[in-house]
């Protein structure tokens, strides 16, 4: 009987701690690209992909070899080499970051309350996925994307949108 009570108490404490929304901290091992980072939490290593976005890397990898889309992205990064490693310039290896896993992707808080997804959108290094719906983040992400579009940053100042993304939004 005592064992059943202990198990019951464990489940209650576990559910309370999960409902508390405590930040999950993970240590950044390395930044693979603007889209992908590798983290460690305890003994567990995992890959973190930017939440709710289509990054230039994803667009490049999903387009055909020799396509206008790929050529425009290559041209953009030749003209702006620091932006190819933008996430690496923001994040420090061996530093702890607050991360949330959502739909097999990560919400990575890179600068205080700003997520890496927002920062990539502001720089025009990504666009929102078509039909993206998230009550918590949709307004932040939409605003960040509009800012980049108005300022003609990243893909909004190049032919990348018309050659890679326009079809997705039709």
General description of the model:
The chain has 170 residues and is α+β, with helices and mostly antiparallel strands. The chain has a single domain (22-169), classed as Beta Barrel (OB fold (Dihydrolipoamide Acetyltransferase, E2P)), CATH 2.40.50.90. The protein has helices at 2-19, 56-62, 68-79, 81-84, 86-90, 116-122, 138-151, 160-165, and strands at 24-31, 36-41, 44-49, 53-55, 96-102, 105-111, 114-115, 126-128. It has a six-stranded antiparallel beta sheet. A two-stranded antiparallel ribbon has the order 4-8. The longest helix is centred in the N-terminal third of the chain and has 18 residues, at 2-19.
Quick description:
The chain has a single domain, classed as OB fold (Dihydrolipoamide Acetyltransferase, E2P) (Beta Barrel). Helix content is 43%, strand content 25%. It contains 8 helices and 8 strands.
How many helices does DSSP assign? 8
The total number of structural domains is: 1
What is the rounded Rg? Answer: 19 Å
| CATH topology value | OB fold (Dihydrolipoamide Acetyltransferase, E2P)
Low-confidence runs of at least 5 consecutive residues = 9-20
Distance separating the two termini: 62 Å
Oligomeric state of this protein? single chain
Give me the CATH architecture, please: Beta Barrel
Characteristics of this structure?
8 helices, alpha+beta, single chain, 170 residues, 25% strand, OB fold (Dihydrolipoamide Acetyltransferase, E2P)
């Amino acid at each position: 009987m005592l064992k059943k009570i202990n198990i019951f108490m464990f489940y209650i404490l576990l559910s309370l701690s999960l409902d508390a929304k405590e930040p999950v901290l993970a240590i950044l091992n390395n930044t693979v690209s603007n889209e992908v980072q590798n983290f460690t939490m305890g003994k567990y290593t995992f890959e973190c992909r930017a939440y709710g976005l289509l990054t230039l890397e994803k667009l490049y990898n999903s387009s055909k070899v020799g396509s206008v889309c790929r050529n425009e992205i290559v041209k953009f990064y030749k003209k702006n080499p620091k932006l190819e490693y933008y996430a690496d310039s923001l994040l420090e290896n061996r530093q702890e970051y607050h991360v949330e896993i959502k739909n097999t992707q990560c919400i990575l808080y890179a600068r205080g309350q700003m997520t890496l997804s927002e920062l990539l959108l502001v720089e025009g290094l990504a666009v929102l996925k078509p039909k993206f719906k998230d009550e918590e983040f949709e307004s932040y992400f939409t605003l960040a994307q509009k800012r980049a579009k108005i300022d003609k940053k990243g893909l909004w100042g190049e032919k990348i949108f018309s050659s890679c993304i326009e079809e997705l939004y039709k």
